[in-house]
Amino acid sequence: MSDLGDWFRSIPLITRYWFAGSIAVPLVGKLGLVSPVNLFLWPDAFIHRFQIWRPITATFFFPVGPGTGFLYLVNLYFLYQYSSRLETGAFDGRPADYMFMLLFNWICIVITGLVMDMQLLMIPLIMSVLYVWAQLNRDMIVSFWFGTRFKACYLPWVILGFNYIIGGSVINELIGNLVGHLYFFLMFKYPMDLGGRNFLSTPQFLYRWLPNRRGGVSGFGVPPASVRRAAEDQQGGGRHNWGQGFRLGDQ
């Protein structure tokens, strides 16, 4: 148990709480401590009955059962892997900026969920984070199941197809990819490659709550270190190399 505790404490702070919540809330529903019907995102209950907790519980809850357990575990693994890598990689020392990314993606997914009557939001949020990681490490060669290898930029779409095979739907994954693309475009692509303005800015209260560490750079719109190095190497224009990342499976 001490090894398990040490491993859990080694998970980056924000990812740790997200990961723990994604285990605790489904467990509460599975044990019947809270009826699962109170954990889904239902627009009528949220809007007209003011059950304001539903967007939050729907983000952590997943109905674990014989037909969904494997899909749940796979996406829990993706959460741990790619949220940890983003938090300790591109957003290293900038927890407020990482939290803002999660909040931005989450708000977009909640709005989409209310419009499209999506009851579960766990997979879309995980996929949005995975998409951002894949774009920031787009040229890295990653390995997937059965030894397949491809560039990281294709990983979200490979996983979309993989989840379709084991889960039978692609709507959640597609929404997550689109939201992740929206964040990546507004945060990096539009201001850096297209010379546009920065539309996203981390609120100051997040910096007060989660101050930068090790001299991290405040203010949203500042690219990760790998992106800044690429931009400095390409002064004068051209497309940016979005930096380096990790090989899938490297521990």
Report on this model:
The protein has helices spanning about 1-10, 15-30, 45, 55-60, 70-90, 95-115, 120-135, 155-165, 170-195, 205-210, 225-235, and strands at about 140-145, 150. The chain has a two-stranded antiparallel sheet with strand order 1-2. Helix 2 (about 15-30) packs antiparallel against helix 5 (about 70-90) and helix 5 packs across helix 7 (about 120-135). It has a single domain (about 5-210), classed as Rhomboid-like fold. The chain has about 250 residues and is mostly helical. It is found in: Endoplasmic reticulum membrane. This is Derlin. Belongs to the derlin family.
The CATH superfamily is identified as Rhomboid-like
How many β-strand runs? 2
CATH class: Mainly Alpha
Rough shape? globular
Helix and strand composition category: mainly alpha
Rounded to the nearest angstrom, the radius of gyration is 18 Å
User: Any guess at the CATH architecture?
Assistant: Up-down Bundle
**Rounded mean pLDDT score:** 83
Note poorly predicted spans.
215-251
* Element pattern in H and E: HHHHHHHEEHHHH
**How many H/I helices?**
11
The end-to-end span amounts to 21 Å
Which range best describes the helical content: under 10%, 10-25%, 25-40%, 40-55%, 55-70% or over 70%?
Answer: 55-70%
Q: How many structural domains can be distinguished in the coordinates?
A: 1
CATH topology: Rhomboid-like fold
Taken as a percent bin, the fraction of beta residues is under 5%
Specify the biggest β-sheet: 2 strands, antiparallel
Strand order of the largest sheet: 1-2
